[in-house]
Amino acid sequence: MKICVFGAASFEIDDKYIKATEELGELLAKRGHSLVFGAGGNGLMGAAARGVKRGGGKIEGVIPHFFREETIEKIYDECDELIFTETMAQRKTKMEDLADAFVIVPGGIGTFEEFFEVLTLKQLGRHSKPIAIFDFNGYYKKLNEFLDFSIEEKFIKDNCKTLYSTSENPLEVLEYIENDNCKVLDVHELKKG
Predict the structure, then answer these.
(1) Residue 193's pLDDT band (cuts 50, 70, 90)
(2) Cys-Cys link to 164, which of 27, 83, 131, 139 (CB 3.0-4.6 A)?
(3) For residues 115 and 133, is the Cβ–Cβ distance under 8 A?
(4) Rounded Cα distance, 75 and 64, in Å
(5) Cβ proximity of 2 and 34 under 8 Å
(6) CA 84 from chain center: how many Å?
(7) What is the pTM of this model?
(8) Contact criterion met (CB below 8 Å) for 105 and 44
(9) Sequence-separated (6 or more) residues with CB below 8 Å from residue 15
(10) Paired residues of 165 in beta bridges
(11) How far, CA to CA in Å, does 77 sit from each of 25, 49, 144?
(12) Angle formed at CA 129 by CA 168 and CA 50, multiple of 5 degrees
């Protein structure tokens, strides 16, 4: 299974997040999966790739040309395949197309946007791929609380919570991805409007 990992690119992240994501990547590879990611060499993107490499897995990186040309972030140099795109939107689309499932590790604005895009597309019935949040150190606790509040306030239908899983345990994250039998719901069961 090709698992797309969305996560932070920052090199200033506390080492505990780096180690946990490296362990997740290694476990992912040892369970026979490959990695699709944004090709970053720093932060949790780089950590996931290093873990997958240590576990013997295949790595596909996807990154816009301008990241290299403008040296925006370090590119992971041990990808088995490196795909360049023109835009950020093309990068996301390519990763989404390549992936069989998505794992969201701690990250910033870009990671939030990637999570909400794949969640929205699943809500709209554009894919039925598993989505799992690796909630290491309770990083996504407040986000889940906000989504619960949005459900309480009737902005989101409550069955949208069935579209993804959250766990602090990397093994549980991968077991969810591997065993997801998500019933494909009709868009009208998932979206108000």
Answers:
(1) low
(2) 131
(3) yes
(4) 11
(5) yes
(6) 19
(7) 0.93
(8) yes
(9) none
(10) 132
(11) 16, 10, 34
(12) 55
- Residue 4 neighbours by CB under 8 Å, 6+ apart: 35, 36, 37, 95, 96, 98, 99, 101, 102, 103
Q: How far apart are CA 170 and CA 142, in angstroms?
A: 19
Looking at this protein, which amino acid is placed at residue 1? M
Mean pLDDT for the chain overall? 92
Pairing state between β 165-167 and 59-64: unpaired
Q: Which residues of 110-129 are buried (b: 16+ CB within 10 A; e: fewer)?
A: bbeebbebbbeebbeeebeb
Task: Give burial (CB, 10 Å; 0-12/13-18/19+) of 151.
Answer: middle
Q: CA-CA distance, 168 to 178, in Å (whole number)?
A: 17
pLDDT at residue 142, as a whole number: 97
pLDDT recorded at residue 73: 77
Say if CB 132 and CB 101 are below 8 A apart: yes
Which range has the worst mean pLDDT, 104-113, 118-127, 177-186?
Answer: 177-186
| Residue length of the chain | 193
Mean pLDDT on 36-64 = 96
Rounded to the nearest angstrom, the gap between the alpha carbon of residue 128 and the centroid of all alpha carbons in its chain is 15
From CA 166, how far away is CA 179, in angstroms rounded? 14
Decide if pLDDT at 189 tops 70: no
